[in-house]
């Protein structure tokens, strides 16, 4: 057998080493030249069984390079180092440290209510860093379109009070912004697409005369949670399963007031809570939520990142934006910082919002760029990070282009993204977080070299 020429063989061997080493050495993983996981997709030429269904699932190809000045990813900006706490938690999950969980609380309005955008970010982060569980879910559906990707929720017998309706008067809405009152016979059932959850933590209100809640996992009783107490205060009880479970139930035995449940797995990874309120604005978190009650919820959640994603519902009221928006946004940041000083905060701008213009074209509502500018400035002033969703998705007129796209990416109100459009925004957000995370790791590595007294020339082997 004839051997290949030595020089080409040496070139091929060298290239193979350059491709393989960054995958094996953690400090060099940001310099990977090839994602080996994509190779099977490249060499798989098998035809689709159902072309129509496949086309519906395919992510629309919308370029954002022109928006980011030629860069492939639209960066997170704001205060320097604002996301370091979150990135450090994410790094621990990447290293698969036992018990490492990077938890995100994402507060938003109607798209978040349906787990649009948030569900896509969750899926991408958990695919990359591990799945620590589905996190917080409400007890029942306050709105028909309430959703949490991968969870089927059924319930009956509950009186539901959302913070956007402001009916409770006491401001007690738990972590998720909805209060559920039920008597004996009220029930809720969460069925997960994927098995593996090992605990449920019930969030409730203790109160005089409170009843019990029976918790069941995969048909087996886990225990009872007693809500009776002389004092009215937030309550939390975690129940662990003897084996990983797919379905959980809560059954009221007497009068109770509940807020939702957190579902965890034993894996290291990401937990991404989608906390959406239909019709929400900054006013809800700044004024309607009872401060001490919400602080107890935030402290119990121990988030590494809190995302504040409001502005769509305010964008039609320019006088409100000018007079009140900055003050309300800063009040939310103050409250979050007081309750969870360890958490990073990311202000996420609203998406574009379209409106019909005199000539018939679909333009951008003037309040959207105005809000994004305010949010960017507030982030700098308060030490928060900022993601300009409006510019990342395409800037002025995006919703008009999305409405006319094939497939269509936004509903006829030029506000709410369809699932395909939400996937684009979710991917933009994920890419921005990942890019910032990689820059964080490079910066940390540079700091270690500096502390060790290693000069740049020594790091690269140059003399």
Care to describe what's here?
There is one protein chain. The protein has 463 residues and is of the alpha+beta class. The protein folds into two domains: 25-31 and 64-132 and 267-450, Rossmann fold; 148-266, Jelly Rolls. The chain is built from 14 helices and 17 strands. The protein has helices at residues 6-24, 39-43, 51-57, 84-94, 110-113, 118-129, 282-288, 291-301, 318-339, 367-382, 389-392, 398-404, 419-451, 456-460, and strands at residues 77-78, 101-108, 135-137, 151-162, 178-192, 197-206, 212-217, 220-226, 233-245, 247-253, 256-264, 269-276, 305-309, 344-348, 354-356, 362-364, 385-387. The strands form three sheets. Strands 3, 4, 5, 6, 7, 8, 9, 10 and 11 form a nine-stranded antiparallel beta sheet that branches. Strand 7 and strand 8 (220-226) form a beta hairpin. Helix 4 packs across helix 13, helix 6 (118-129) packs across helix 13 and helix 9 packs parallel to helix 10 (367-382). The longest helix has 33 residues, at 419-451. The chain is globular.
- Tertiary shape: globular
Oligomer: single chain
- What is the structural class? alpha+beta
Distance N to C terminus: 44 Å
Give the tally of β-strands: 17
What are the SSEs and their pairings?
Layout: H1 6-24, H2 39-43, H3 51-57, E1 77-78, H4 84-94, E2 101-108, H5 110-113, H6 118-129, E3 135-137, E4 151-162, E5 178-192, E6 197-206, E7 212-217, E8 220-226, E9 233-245, E10 247-253, E11 256-264, E12 269-276, H7 282-288, H8 291-301, E13 305-309, H9 318-339, E14 344-348, E15 354-356, E16 362-364, H10 367-382, E17 385-387, H11 389-392, H12 398-404, H13 419-451, H14 456-460
Parallel strand pairs: 2-12, 2-13, 13-14, 14-17
Antiparallel strand pairs: 1-17, 3-11, 4-5, 5-10, 5-11, 6-9, 6-11, 7-8, 7-10, 15-16
């Amino acid at each position: 057998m004839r051997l290949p020429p030595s020089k080409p063989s040496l070139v091929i061997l060298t290239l193979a080493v350059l491709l393989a080493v960054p995958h094996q050495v953690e400090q060099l993983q940001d310099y990977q030249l090839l994602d080996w996981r994509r190779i099977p997709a490249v060499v798989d030429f098998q035809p689709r069984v159902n072309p129509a269904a496949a086309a519906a699932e395919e992510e629309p190809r919308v370029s954002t390079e022109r928006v980011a000045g030629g860069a492939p990813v639209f960066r997170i900006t704001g205060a320097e180092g604002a996301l370091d706490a979150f990135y450090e938690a994410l790094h621990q999950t990447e290293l698969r440290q036992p018990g490492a969980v990077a938890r995100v609380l994402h507060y938003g309005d109607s798209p978040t209510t349906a787990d649009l955008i948030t569900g896509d970010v969750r899926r991408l982060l958990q695919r990359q860093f591990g799945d620590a569980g589905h996190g917080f879910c409400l007890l029942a559906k306050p709105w028909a379109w309430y959703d949490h990707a991968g969870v089927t929720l059924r319930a009956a017998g509950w009186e539901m009070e959302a913070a956007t309706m402001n009916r409770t008067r006491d401001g007690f809405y738990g972590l998720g912004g909805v209060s559920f009152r039920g008597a004996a016979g009220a029930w809720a059932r969460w069925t997960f697409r994927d098995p593996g959850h090992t605990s449920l933590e019930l969030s409730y209100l203790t109160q005089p005369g409170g009843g019990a809640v029976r918790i069941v996992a995969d048909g087996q009783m886990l225990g009872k949670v007693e809500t009776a107490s002389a004092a009215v205060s937030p309550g939390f009880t975690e129940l662990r399963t003897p084996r990983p479970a797919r379905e959980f139930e809560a059954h009221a035995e007497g009068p109770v007031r509940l807020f939702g449940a957190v579902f965890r797995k034993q894996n290291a990874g990401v937990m991404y809570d989608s906390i959406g309120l239909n019709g929400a604005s900054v006013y809800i978190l700044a004024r309607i939520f009872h401060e001490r009650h919400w602080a107890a919820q935030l402290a119990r959640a121990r988030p590494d990142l809190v995302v504040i994603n409001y502005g769509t519902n305010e964008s039609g009221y320019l006088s409100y934006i000018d007079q009140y928006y900055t003050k309300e946004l800063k009040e939310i940041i103050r409250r979050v910082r007081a309750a969870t000083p360890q958490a990073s905060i990311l202000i996420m701008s609203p998406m574009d919002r379209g409106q019909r213009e005199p000539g018939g074209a679909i333009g951008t509502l003037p309040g959207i760029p105005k809000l994004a500018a305010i949010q960017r400035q507030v982030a700098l002033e308060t030490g928060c990070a900022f993601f300009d969703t409006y510019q990342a998705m395409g800037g002025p007129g995006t919703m008009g282009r999305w409405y006319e796209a094939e497939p269509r990416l936004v509903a006829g109100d030029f506000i709410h993204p369809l699932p395909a459009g939400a996937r684009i925004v979710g991917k933009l957000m994920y890419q921005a977080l990942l890019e910032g995370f990689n820059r964080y790791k490079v910066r940390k590595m540079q700091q270690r070299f500096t502390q060790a007294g290693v000069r740049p020339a020594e790091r690269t082997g140059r003399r």
